[in-house]
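Researcher: Go.
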Amino acid sequence: MAQGTVDTPIGRFHVSVRADAVVAAGWSPTGDDRSGDDMLLALALAQVEDYFAGRRQVFDLPIAPHGTPFQRKVWRRIAAIPFGGYETYGSLARDLGGVAAQAVGQACGRNPVGLLVPCHRVLAAGPRLGGYGGATTVKRWLLGHEGLGGIPD
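Model: Structure:
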């Protein structure tokens, strides 16, 4: 497995690549800058840098997050939320066949490829900020970066 990190305006971001796909991504307080010479890892880190520099709105990377069939279904749906857009836990729950909004929230919380599958674009009813595994300050920053500032807690 190849791994690398990149510094962002809101902390150090870690990416792990196995075979031909990104399998993990998220904020990490520590970690090696880079292990392994992998072209996909280099591409993933470059795309994360481009996102934070305002040059990228869509990630174009193969991902293979490990999760249950339901979690992967939620993550596919979340991956379709466009830059600058959002959905609520409730609306996703209805779209996914009337499951509980809490189940959608739990799937978001277990997303192993944060930012690439943009769980920060999923909000509580109202809309309100809701929770976020990477901390609500990170969620607020990401939403502001995408033009969705001012969402209440």
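Model: The chain has two domains: 2-52, 69-145.
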